[in-house]
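User: Hey, quick favor. My workstation is busy. Could you predict this chain's structure for me?
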Amino acid sequence: MPGGMMVIPLLAGCIIATFAPDLPKFFGSFTAALFSGALPILAVFYVCMGSTIDLKMTGYIAKKGGSLFATKILLGVINKDFVGCDSWFDRRPFLG
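Assistant: No problem, here it is.
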């Protein structure tokens, strides 16, 4: 049952967090870090997304991701030069 693959670990986590809230601290800093913040859900999300990618599609994904990343960098440099600051390290606005 696919729904059980998500519901059962969530229920187990809720039970552990309710009855033994200091358990992650007992196992150490790495385990405690995994139990706090958004890191656990992001890690599960990225693993699940990565497991659905077909190996033949990695070239297309790298090309598309690389072009999006290059566009972001280019737009940031353009924004800095024409709208932003006088220099790379100056925080004062150029047009203000």
